[in-house]
Amino acid sequence: ESDTASEVSFQFNRHKKTPSIGSHSSDMASVSSVSGSVLSVYSGDFGSVDAQGTVEFALDYDEKNREFQVHVSQCKDLAVVDEKKGRSDPYVKTYLLPDKARMGKRKTSVKKRTVNPIYNEVLRYKIEKMVLLIQKLNLSVWHNDPLGRNSFLGEIEVDLASWDWSNRKLNWYPLKARSLSAVNGVDHRGVMNLSIKYVPPGSLGKMCPKNPPSGEVHIWVKDVKDLLQLRPSGVDSFVKCYVLPDTSKKSYQKTRVIKRDINPVFNHTIVYDGFHTEDLKDACVELTVWDHEKLTNHFLGGIRLGLGTGLSYGISVDWMDSTQEEVAFWQEMMLAANEWIEGLLPLRSL
């Protein structure tokens, strides 16, 4: 494909009003399979204790095995979660930021009934050194609750670009309260610049050769800004598009791959026809951005354009979850037939 605008036409399959929609909504788990792994760094935190104490650890990079190693030694003077029993059951968890979903979490074993746990465990990440140097290490300590109501006990965040890699010794570090950079920064996935337009059936007049017998939704993906920089060279990104509830191959469209750029320009237009005006209340346009890799593509962020009612053709679906900005954008399109509506929408984890 050239760098000029490309256009793909596809007929929207609107006949999804039977209970079979349920299978289509479950198909979304495979389309956005990362949703379970893109939870907040602090998911599951039900505690209200203040961070205190220290943690002893060392960092090393094994050049031969291309492996980042976090040697977690021990903690001292942690906060007590269960005051009645005077106990905490702590463990240590690590992420690599800004995109914790890419490398995943690592965690130690749980040490019961102690505020001075000893671990002597090594948490390992297979990662290239150049990629590691644009990450931050988030190391946090948690109380493990048997019912899953885990409590945050403190954390430390390490900028690996400025880390002294000649220092392989165990050192003590004070645990701190939640980091605003971790809370806010991890969810910043970039911004998509796009325009959408709805052409109602027969609205262009009988004399117009392109007058559609059924309605059309036009989606013009212009560019994306500030994608997560997963490699020093940037990312090789492309955009996928589905019109839900249809997750078939016929519904699936994608742009070309833009290489080594965290601000890719796509200039790609997709046209879905077969749209009746009433379908706009029940359909949802899902646009997701992916990093292209040889073995598997990696999710970067996405948007869902719809009314966000939680329902599609009377059936409850988890993907009808548009944000206020996304809903307003879709509503503006519905109210302005045959007009391009421009928008700048933040990518989210879906």
UniProtKB/TrEMBL annotation:
GO aspect biological process, one term: exocytosis
Q: Where in the cell is it found?
A: Cell membrane
**Domain C2: start-end pairs:** 51-173, 188-320
An example of a Pfam family matching this protein is: C2
Q: Which GO terms describe its molecular function?
A: neurexin family protein binding
**Transmembrane stretches, by residue range?**
none
Q: What is this protein called?
A: Synaptotagmin-like protein 2
Start and end residues of each stretch annotated as Disordered: 1-28
Q: What is the scientific name of the source organism?
A: Indicator maculatus (spotted honeyguide)
Q: Where is the composition biased (Polar residues)?
A: 1-12
Source organism superkingdom: Eukaryota
Q: What is its main location?
A: membrane
Report keywords, A-Z.
Cell membrane, Exocytosis, Membrane, Repeat
Per the record, what is one GO cellular component?
exocytic vesicle
